[in-house]
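Page 42, continued from yesterday. The earlier attempt failed because a stray header line got pasted into the input along with the sequence. Redoing it now with the clean sequence only.
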Amino acid sequence: MTPTLSHAKRSRTAAIGPWLPPRIRVLYIATANRTGGWLAEAFAADSASDVVLEEAVGSVAGLARLRDELFDAVLVSHQPGELDALELIDGYRTGVADAPIIVLGTESEQEMAAACYELGADAYVCVNTTTTRNLIWVVARAVQRHELVRENHRLTQARQRQLRQEHDEANRLLAQQQALIDALEALECRGGASEPLAVPEEASPGGSPAAVHCRAPGLPAELIAHYRELLRTYVIMGSGNLARELSRLADLLTTAGVSARETMQLHLHVL
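This time it went through. Structure tokens are written below.
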């Protein structure tokens, strides 16, 4: 017996959700004994969305089409003994491009839905109890969900790339600052200064080497704290976002008569 879809008792011109796709390209995987003519007729009778239905007979032909073409969604006819949709889902998920898959069968949703979900299907629809409009919405929501998942995956990858770039930039800036400290220490050693700019501290209680630190310059604590925040922001974000703040700091140091040596001591102390 050919399954049929009932039609909702509502006007085709009734308001449709704003994101219902105007056109959906769907592949229907069926058997030779039960082709998709009935399904095409049902979609054609409902103008809520233009469903372009293409058909493949058998699981092998269906998987071949999916490897070569892109579809918005896949409908699979579950006909035990002829086409087992549960077996096809597993091969579909591992062997072809990603797209939502909806299983159509005559068993009730209580009997089949959970098994389909567990294998990776997006929905199960009983063709004897659903309507054409409901099936269109099931397909549309599955398509929307997959688009959101792909977009979320793309954004996650972009964020990870950004974090890696920021991490590499921070390491590069820290390496430059360390090279500057090493160069200044070498100059102090060659100049025989009685008070070197940088001296090693004792090992920290946890056993890890303590950071090299410079004696604090004779400057206000507020200025030192402000410079510390600017340097931390610069290491993370770079100089592109700090032009105004750096200009104000330069004016402040000039007005206060801070010498170049005191400025370098401030920088090394905060670093």
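Notes: Residues 8-17, 193-213 have pLDDT under 50 and may be disordered.
Reminder to self: strip header lines before submitting.
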